[in-house]
User: Fold this.
Amino acid sequence: MCRDVFICATILSVLEGTILNNRYKLADRVGLGGMASVYRAEDMVLGRTVAIKMLHEGLLGDATFVRQFQQEAHSAANLAHPNIVTVHDIGQHEHRSYIVMEYVAGQTLKAIIRDHFAEKRFIPINRVLDLLIQICRGIGYAHRSGVVHCDIKPQNIIVTADERVKVTDFGIARAVSQASISLDRDGSAWGTPQYFSPEQASGDTPTPASDVYAIGIVMYETLTNRLPFTGENATAVAIKHLQESPKDIRKINKHVPEQLAKIVHKILDKEPSGRYRTAGQLGRILTAYRDQYRQQEVAPPILPIAKTVQVRSKPPAVELPSVVPQHAPQREPVFADDPTQFPSDIEMEINPPSSDDPLLETDYVAVTLGMAALLALLGLIPLWIVVARAWGVF
Assistant:
């Protein structure tokens, strides 16, 4: 791997203007990372602008990685979703593998976070929810297609000018995960340790729940402008993922609602079974929360009901109580989809009516009248028998 970014930039700059396979003409470089460089290019056959990710030469010596990269790039090419960068083509140029993708003009989520951090302000909650829901939709679609991303991070999330989210780097991330997830001798790692799930840090096979954990890290960083776990090297960060709990998100950003903080806490559970199972499930939870969060923001004020004042003829001056509008107390959205909101069993205590209840007191007047009526009725029975005999009934 090319570890000196300056050297990599110098070597790869000579590729600008190169034509790949008589079809793709490389223009300017728009991105540079530890594994690949991204170029804006022209597809001379279809006459469209594309993005081409070229792997660094240092990766060509890992035959397992190259083979896995090509396989996973083919799988990523089958993912067609509005929140996933489309893969158009896969090829090689002078033994260097590359991927041709749709060109998306915009900023990475990492750049957006940095801009807010530079201005010492947090990204609004509504915007964070909108972005994360779109991320979950894209990753959730991949999960339903049997693809795990394995390296979700703000650098792999592009946000357009109209706030559309595009997730990229499926092929490289999955290939890296399958080829080698272990730490190198110098402490570096394939992928990005700051976004590893605990099971990835321990070398286990990533699952959709691993992607959910990474989305949780992205969510934590987007809400706070901070990573939950940092360290001197990849090993130190991996250990923190396995052993430590992140700092309470509300102690960093007091504007984060308590219920949203609980959702983030659940996403970052050390055990995969303690998280939401897939990104699609998490997306539904966040959508429900966002909708109710917005309803709370636009809810009209509740006005107190004024008591009726009865006024007689020629009354003295009566000052009616004034009705002052009062805003409803702010409450956080509550929805049953989040198991952290309610206990598993809700017990309701039903108290029997008290003997002191005035509705249950004895009405002695009614009882007396009832007894009198009964006696009168009984007294008429002998008279009725005499009359009946006189008329020959008996």
